[in-house]
Fold Gluconokinase.
Amino acid sequence: MNDRFKNTSVVVMGVAGCGKSSLGQLCARTLAVPLLEGDDFHSPSNVDKMRAGIALSDDDRAAWLDALARQLQAHPDGVVLTCSALKLRYRDRLRAAAPGLRFVFLELTQEEARERVAARPAHLFPVSLVASQFATLEDPRLEAGVLSLDATRPLEELGAAVVRWVQGSAASPAMEVRP
């Protein structure tokens, strides 16, 4: 692990299709911390629901968020977690598990998300559920410890912005930083 980023834990969040996995992989590699794919921790019943085009409820997400919280606690030296983290209470559940947890919010329009999700037909998440994600999303941009980025920017640019933010450097004009 890179000592510069020791104890750095980041959640890459946003709606389906925003690029959480791609940015999460790049950030984990650059920060030299493990990557946890949030989708890997869904129960089989949650996966079945999503594949069937049924939006998950708060009750469906509760055990999933608990599993993610345990994973954050199991990685006290730092980790990158990909997780939609759509509601404030979901983010607060994760924050409680890992004090100092940071969130990178990848923003895009509903149409952009639909196009991206449609381009990956093998994924467990169907296009029909994109609207439900936007309906559930509670804007995190005014919360402390959140970096908001335009998800349509090039991946390398997004990754560099996250690293600068983690290092505490000045933000570039292509992003919003909330202290």
Remarks:
- Residues 169-179 have pLDDT under 50 and may be disordered.
- Residues 95 and 124 are 27 Å apart (CA to CA).
